[in-house]
C-alpha cells in the first residue's frame, strides 16, 4: 500500500516525503529505486494545515476549523526519513547506502513483516529478544550478545526510565547461556534479582592487596593531607602486608615514626599521631568492610553465574578502590588465560576463568567521571581499549551521561538510550554515538518508561524498541511513600488494639 512520495531535494542518506497519513517517529518505510529496495527510518514527522497557516485570533481559528473539516486537502503530512541502506543487504547485516539518491516522486510503502523480522529478529545464534519494535509491536527486537561482550555496551537514561530493568534483562539472557556476569551494585538494586545461577557477594576489601595510595583512600585520609599520606606510605611496608597481625603491625610501624628521635621524622610526628587515630577509627568504623584475612576477593566470583557485588555499604572512595581492584585483576586474569590458550606461557595455570566475562558498572559517572581521574576510571578505560581482545566486556550504566568520561563512553560499541531531557546529556550522547542522528537525539525527551533507542553493533540497524519487563527484578523501582505511610499507620492501629486487648485480658484475670 502506498504511503506517499519523495519530494523536494533528496540525498543518499536523507529524503523528505509527503504522506497520506502522519507517520510515527521510529516507523520503517520502503523506497523503490532502480538499484533495489531501500529501507528508511522516520526520524521526524510534521503535520500542517493550510486553513490555520495565518490564524491570528480565536474567531479566525473557529472559522478555520470548519474550513479544514470541509477541505479534504487541507492537511499536509511531512516525514523526514533517514536512509538505512538497501533492504537486500540489510537482511545479511550489511548497511550499504545508495550512491544515487531516490528520485523525487518515488513512491514509499510499508515494508512487510518478513522484511522487518529478517533484520530486527534474526534467528542466528547469539541473538536474544529484549522487547518489540516500538512502532511495529508484532516484530521482536533482538540484540547480538556477542557484540556487547566484544565491543562493550552503554545504557543511558534518566532515573526511573528502565535502566536497571534492561540490565536485568541482558543479565537474564546471558544467564540462560551460563555466561559469567559481574554487576557492581552501588545502590543494592540487584541483590534480590530472582534469576537462576545468581551469586550475591557483599563486597569487602583486603587491605593487604592494596598499594599505599589505595589504602589512604580506603582509610579516608582526606585529599590534600600530603604529610599524613606520606606517613602511611612509610608505614605500609612489605612486612605489614605479610604479617599475620596486619593492623597491629601497621600501628607499630606508625608508632615507630611517632617515637623516633630522628630529626626528619620528628617534623612529621603530629601528622603521624593523626594517622594513628585514623587507623584506629577505621578498624572500628569499617570492621565489616576491611578484612585483611579474607584472601583474594576474586576467588568469590563464580564462573558461569551472575555475580552481584554489593558495594552499597562502601563509601564512594572505598567503592572506587574496590571496583578498580576487581577490574585490574579481571583484566589480568583474562590476559593470562589468553596467553595460556595460545601456548605462550611456560608457567602453571595462573588464571581462574575459562570463558568471557561481562562486567557492568552501575552509576558509571561516579567511577568514570569526566572531570577528574580515579583508579576505577583508569582500569575501565584500559578494559574499554583492550578488553575485547581477551574476552572481557564492559557495560556502563548512568543517568548522567554528561558526567561520564567521553573517552570511555565513545568506546562503547553499542548503546541503549532511554529518556534524556538535559541538553548537556544529549550533546554528550551525540558526541559518543556517531550513528545517532540529531533527529533521533531530539526524540529522547518524548520516550516513555521502557522505551529505548538501540544503536551500534548489537543491532543490525538503529531502532526504537519497547524493552520487555523483567518480572524477576524486585528492587530498583521507585518506592511509594503514600503506601508506606498508610501501611505504617495501619500497623500503629493494630499495635494499639493489640495492647488494649492484652490490658483488658489482664484486668479480667485479676
Automatic annotation (TrEMBL):
It comes from Candidatus Nitrosopumilus koreensis AR1. This is Helicase HerA central domain-containing protein. It catalyses: ATP + H2O = ADP + phosphate + H(+); Couples ATP hydrolysis with the unwinding of duplex DNA by translocating in the 3'-5' direction. Residues 128-329 form the Helicase HerA central domain. Belongs to the HerA family. InterPro entries: HerA-like (IPR008571), HerA_central (IPR002789), P-loop_NTPase (IPR027417). One of its GO terms (molecular function) is 3'-5' DNA helicase activity.
Amino acid at each position: 500500500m502506498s504511503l506517499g512520495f519523495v519530494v523536494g531535494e533528496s540525498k543518499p542518506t536523507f529524503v523528505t516525503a509527503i504522506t497520506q497519513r502522519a507517520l510515527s517517529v521510529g516507523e520503517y518505510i520502503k523506497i523503490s529505486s532502480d538499484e533495489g529496495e531501500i529501507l528508511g527510518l522516520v526520524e521526524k514527522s510534521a503535520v500542517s494545515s493550510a486553513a490555520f497557516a495565518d490564524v491570528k485570533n480565536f474567531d479566525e481559528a473557529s472559522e478555520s476549523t470548519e474550513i479544514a473539516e470541509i477541505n479534504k486537502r487541507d492537511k499536509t503530512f511531512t516525514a523526514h526519513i533517514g536512509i538505512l541502506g538497501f533492504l537486500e543487504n540489510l537482511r545479511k547485516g550489511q548497511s550499504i547506502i545508495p550512491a544515487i539518491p531516490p528520485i523525487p516522486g518515488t513512491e514509499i510503502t510499508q515494508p512487510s513483516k518478513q522484511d522487518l523480522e529478517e533484520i530486527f529478529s534474526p534467528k542466528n545464534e547469539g541473538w536474544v529478544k529484549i522487547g518489540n519494535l516500538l512502532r511495529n509491536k508484532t516484530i521482536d527486537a533482538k540484540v547480538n550478545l556477542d557484540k556487547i561482550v566484544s565491543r562493550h555496551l552503554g545504557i543511558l537514561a534518566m532515573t526511573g526510565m528502565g535502566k536497571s530493568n534492561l540490565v536485568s534483562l541482558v543479565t537474564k539472557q546471558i544467564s540462560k547461556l551460563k555466561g559469567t556476569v559481574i554487576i557492581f551494585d552501588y545502590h543494592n538494586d540487584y541483590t534480590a534479582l530472582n534469576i537462576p545461577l545468581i551469586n550475591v557477594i557483599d563486597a569487602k576489601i583486603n587491605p593487604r592487596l592494596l598499594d599505599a595510595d589505595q589504602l589512604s583512600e580506603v582509610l579516608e585520609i582526606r585529599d590534600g593531607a600530603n604529610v599524613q599520606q606520606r606517613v602511611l606510605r612509610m608505614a605500609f611496608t612489605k612486612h605489614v602486608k605479610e604479617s599475620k597481625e596486619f593492623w597491629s603491625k601497621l600501628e607499630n610501624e606508625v608508632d615507630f615514626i611517632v617515637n623516633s628521635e630522628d630529626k626528619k621524622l620528628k617534623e612529621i610526628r603530629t601528622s603521624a599521631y593523626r594517622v594513628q587515630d585514623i587507623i584506629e577509627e577505621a578498624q572500628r568504623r569499617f570492621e565489616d568492610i576491611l578484612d585483611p584475612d579474607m584472601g583474594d576477593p576474586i576467588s568469590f566470583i563464580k564462573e558461569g553465574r551472575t555475580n552481584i557485588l554489593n558495594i552499597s555499604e562502601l563509601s564512594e572512595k572505598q567503592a572506587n578502590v574496590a571496583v578498580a581492584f576487581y577490574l585490574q585483576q579481571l583484566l589480568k586474569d583474562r590476559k593470562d588465560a589468553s596467553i595460556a590458550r595460545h601456548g605462550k606461557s611456560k608457567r602453571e595455570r595462573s588464571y581462574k576463568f575459562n570463558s568471557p566475562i561481562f562486567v557492568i558498572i552501575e552509576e558509571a559517572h561516579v567511577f568514570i567521571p569526566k572531570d577528574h581521574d580515579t583508579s576505577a576510571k583508569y582500569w575501565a578505560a584500559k578494559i574499554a581499549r583492550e578488553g575485547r581482545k581477551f574476552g572481557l566486556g564492559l557495560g556502563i550504566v548512568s543517568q548522567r551521561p554528561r558526567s561520564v568520561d567521553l573517552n570511555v563512553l565513545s568506546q562503547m560499541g553499542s548503546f541503549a538510550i532511554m529518556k534524556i531531557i538535559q541538553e548537556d546529556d544529549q550533546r554528550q550522547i551525540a558526541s559518543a554515538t556517531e550513528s545517532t542522528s540529531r533527529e533521533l537525539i531530539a526524540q529522547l525527551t518524548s520516550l516513555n518508561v521502557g522505551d529505548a533507542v538501540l544503536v551500534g553493533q548489537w543491532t543490525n540497524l538503529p531502532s526504537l524498541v519497547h524493552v520487555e519487563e523483567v518480572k524477576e527484578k524486585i528492587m530498583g523501582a521507585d518506592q511509594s511513600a503514600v503506601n508506606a505511610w498508610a501501611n505504617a499507620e495501619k500497623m500503629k492501629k493494630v499495635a494499639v488494639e493489640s495492647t488494649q486487648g492484652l490490658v483488658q485480658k489482664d484486668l479480667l484475670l485479676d
